[in-house]
């Protein structure tokens, strides 16, 4: 496979190091908080791919996070064994996103209007789920429970063995594996023509269309894939929290994931992950005191990042690092021998 | 017969509510193509200002009609100078930055007033229509909205400032060639939009208890009203306000109040799909 700098490439050394850290982490700390951070990182990664590489900003990605969680809870209460519900929690959000995406993209609706529609979808789900209190609203054996949500469903079990319930340490490893595999999946897609075309659409949509690519189909495809990943994150969250509530569809959830991604960095995959882990941890720390409100910090941070480094922290650091290296190379007399063609999107600010 | 009258009044009130809460957003979006996601928090600030004034013993009508617009207008001016002016022409970035502002304002208000609901009693008592109890204050809201709409139309249509504002909307280059500074026009427009949001918040404050997160209740409705209406400030907001208000109340009365809101949001998505430029973009061209 050729090495195209515009899509970034996988650095196996760093990847294996990260995997080793994730495997060994439970030796030094409890797993409850790291599990949550991994779930959030997965959620941010799903949006980061779609926004950073395909240039599609979904303001209401929380919709698919919540849908995944609710799908899992409802399905597992009805089925009992967790393998099918887990798959459903990927399929249902993907199907919903494909329907909404097809409606938007084949109708040539873009940027701001796409933001409005995705946000409104989230609000509809939030309003609906909050209003489903009482016995009238139930799907099979699962009562939707209105504002209180659905508690008390079985967590994930070993596939095929409903009696072997996984909780605690196994959940941590499932989340870690899900995150690493999702990262590899995005890297693989970016290395295929599907990913190249997505980047092409981000850079110049009309040119891609004139070259004969079905732009709407590509956009719908990545939207559905991203929604499936968000649904997986939602399903894992449902297993972590052991309760699903309408707050998962809420505006603050939608805002948070967006902030993690943009602060971490657009056009990178590691940026959203780091953004989610660091800011998520800050949120947990802030939740332990009452002096400063979490939303105050997040809001100020979002304003600052949009004004000062519109592509996020990681690309800004890469830019600084790149210029330091170039300067060092120029001083050592090899200037001009390795000039790159074009600028990688990660370095373009 | 009484029932029909009640429904008619409720529909009228809902239309007024939508137009009132979206006027500030409509001006800013229509004139400057800026989508202010902190709009709901501007409304919320207007409400808190009115309640704080009432607690301090200031006449409540003076507080909601004068003090709230002034205070929130000042906030809007500061926001425009410190954030918005760097982001003109970057719509998505503006949406992100104003969403950050929205979170920031929620945090600040929580810090000052605490996370508990505050409220002020409605200054006008209810009245009877047949066997139904109606809120008299709703009539006042309809009146204020009508006055505000006529005022906006008058300013835009008949004054020099309105002429320049409309000019800056249609062709900033021409306006600046004629010696006016479009940036200054934008600044004043944003301040005026914020002031209108403050007015809406003040007038609506007696209806519900206010929380720091109350802005979220307004932003969705205002948002879809403005975007569906299109770029024309007054006719757009009015036409989509009429459509959404009617649908919301009819479904609410016929089936369930929550379904009324959901019907409104679903209709908004369908309308946006059919007419991405909004109602006025589709049927009226780009006029005021």
Using brief descriptors, characterize the structure shown.
A: 349 residues, mainly alpha, two-stranded antiparallel sheet, disordered N terminus, B: mainly alpha, 2 strands, 76% helix, globular
What is the gist of this entry?
The complex is a heterodimer of chains A (349) and B (288). Helix content of chain A is 66%, strand content 2%.
Helices and strands, with pairings:
The complex is a heterodimer of chains A (349) and B (288).
Chain A (H helix, E strand, L loop, with lengths): L11 H17 L3 H21 L9 H18 L3 H23 L5 H20 L7 E2 L2 E2 L6 E2 L17 H23 L1 H11 L1 H6 L4 H27 L1 E2 L6 H14 L5 H18 L6 H15 L4 H19 L18
Antiparallel strand pairs in A: 1-2, 3-4
Helix pairs in contact in A: 1-6, 2-6, 2-9, 2-10, 2-11, 3-4, 3-9, 4-9, 6-7, 6-9, 7-9, 10-11, 10-12
Chain B lengths: L1 H31 L6 H17 L4 H23 L8 H23 L13 E3 L2 E3 L1 H23 L1 H11 L1 H6 L4 H23 L10 H15 L3 H22 L2 H18 L3 H6 L5
Antiparallel strand pairs in B: 1-2
What does the model show?
The complex is a heterodimer of chains A (349) and B (288). Chain A is an all-alpha fold and 349 residues long. Helices cover 66% and strands 2% of the residues of chain A. Chain A has one domain (5-250). Chain A has helices spanning 12-28, 32-52, 62-79, 83-105, 111-130, 169-191, 193-203, 205-210, 215-241, 251-264, 270-287, 294-308, 313-331, and strands at residues 138-139, 142-143, 150-151, 243-244. In chain A, a hairpin with a 2-residue loop joins strand 1 (138-139) and strand 2. In chain A, helix 1 runs antiparallel to helix 6 (169-191), helix 2 (32-52) runs antiparallel to helix 9 and helix 3 (62-79) crosses helix 9 (215-241). By secondary structure, chain B is mostly helical. Helix content of chain B is 76%, strand content 2%. Chain B has twelve helices and two strands. Chain B has a two-stranded antiparallel sheet. The model of chain B has no long low-confidence stretch (mean pLDDT 85). Chain A binds chain B through residues 57, 59, 103-104, 107-109, 111-113, 115-117, 119-121, 123-124, 127-128, 130-131, 251-252, 255, 258-259, 262, 292-303, 306-307, 310, and chain B through 35, 83, 86-87, 91-93, 95-97, 99-108, 110-111, 216, 220, 223-224, 227, 256, 258, 261-262, 265-266, 268-269, 272-273, 276.
């Amino acid at each position: 496979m050729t090495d195209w700098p515009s899509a970034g490439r996988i650095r196996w050394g760093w990847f294996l190091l990260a995997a080793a850290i994730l495997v060994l982490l439970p030796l030094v700390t409890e797993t409850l908080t790291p599990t949550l951070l991994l779930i959030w990182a997965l959620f941010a990664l799903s949006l980061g791919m779609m926004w950073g590489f395909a240039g599609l900003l979904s303001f209401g990605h929380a919709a698919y996070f919540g849908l995944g969680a609710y799908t899992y809870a409802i399905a597992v209460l009805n089925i009992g064994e967790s393998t099918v519900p887990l798959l459903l929690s990927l399929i249902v959000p993907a199907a919903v996103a494909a329907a909404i995406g097809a409606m938007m993209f084949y109708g040539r609706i873009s940027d701001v209007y796409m933001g409005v529609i995705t946000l409104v979808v989230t609000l509809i789900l939030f309003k609906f789920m909050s209003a489903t209190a009482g016995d009238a609203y139930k799907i099979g054996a699962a009562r939707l429970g209105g504002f209180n949500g659905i508690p008390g469903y079985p967590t994930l079990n070993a596939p095929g063995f409903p009696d072997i319930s996984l909780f605690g340490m196994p959940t941590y490893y499932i989340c870690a594996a899900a995150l690493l595999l999702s990262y590899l999946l995005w890297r693989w897609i970016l290395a295929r023509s599907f990913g190249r075309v997505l980047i092409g659409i981000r850079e110049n949509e009309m040119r891609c269309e004139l070259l004969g690519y079905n732009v709407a189909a590509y956009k719908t495809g990545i939207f559905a894939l991203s929604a499936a990943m968000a649904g997986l994150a939602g399903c894992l969250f449902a297993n972590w929290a052991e309760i699903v509530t309408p707050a998962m569809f809420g505006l603050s959830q939608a805002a948070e994931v967006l902030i993690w991604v943009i602060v971490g960095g657009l056009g990178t995959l590691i940026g959203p992950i780091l953004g989610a882990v660091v800011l998520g941890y800050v949120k947990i720390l802030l939740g332990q005191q009452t002096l400063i409100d979490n939303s105050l910090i997040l809001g100020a941070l979002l304003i600052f990042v949009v004004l000062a480094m519109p592509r996020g922290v990681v690309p800004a650091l890469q830019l600084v690092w790149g210029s330091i290296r170039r300067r060092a190379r120029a001083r050592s007399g090899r200037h001009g021998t390795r000039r790159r063609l074009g600028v990688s999107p990660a370095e373009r600010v | 017969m009484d029932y029909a009258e009640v429904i008619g009044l409720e529909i009228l009130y809902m239309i007024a509510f939508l137009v009132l809460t979206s006027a500030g957003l409509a001006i800013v979006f229509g004139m400057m193509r800026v989508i202010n996601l902190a709009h709901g928090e501007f409304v919320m600030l207007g409400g808190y200002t009115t309640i704080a004034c009432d607690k301090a013993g200031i006449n409540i009508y003076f507080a909601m009609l004068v003090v709230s617009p002034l205070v929130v207008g000042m906030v809007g001016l500061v926001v425009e100078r410190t954030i918005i002016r760097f982001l003109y022409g970057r719509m998505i970035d503006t949406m992100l930055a104003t969403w950050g502002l929205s979170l920031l304002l929620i945090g600040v208000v929580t810090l000052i007033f605490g996370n508990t609901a505050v409220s002020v009693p409605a200054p006008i008592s209810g009245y009877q229509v047949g066997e139904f109890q109606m809120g008299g204050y709703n009539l006042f809201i309809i009146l204020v909205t009508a006055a505000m709409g006529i005022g906006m139309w008058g300013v835009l249509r008949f004054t020099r400032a309105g002429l320049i504002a409309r000019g800056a909307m249609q062709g900033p280059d021409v306006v600046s060639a004629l010696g006016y500074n479009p940036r200054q026009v934008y600044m004043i427009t944003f301040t005026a939009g914020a002031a209108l949001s403050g007015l809406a918040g003040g007038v609506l404050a007696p209806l519900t208890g206010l929380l720091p997160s109350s802005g979220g209740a307004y932003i969705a409705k205002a948002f879809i009203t403005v975007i569906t209406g299109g770029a024309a400030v007054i006719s757009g907001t009015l036409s989509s306000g009429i459509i959404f208000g009617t649908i919301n109340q009819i479904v609410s009365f016929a089936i369930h109040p929550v379904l009324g809101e959901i019907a409104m949001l679903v209709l908004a998505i369908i309308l946006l799909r059919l007419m991405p430029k909004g109602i006025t973009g589709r049927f009226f061209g780009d006029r005021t």
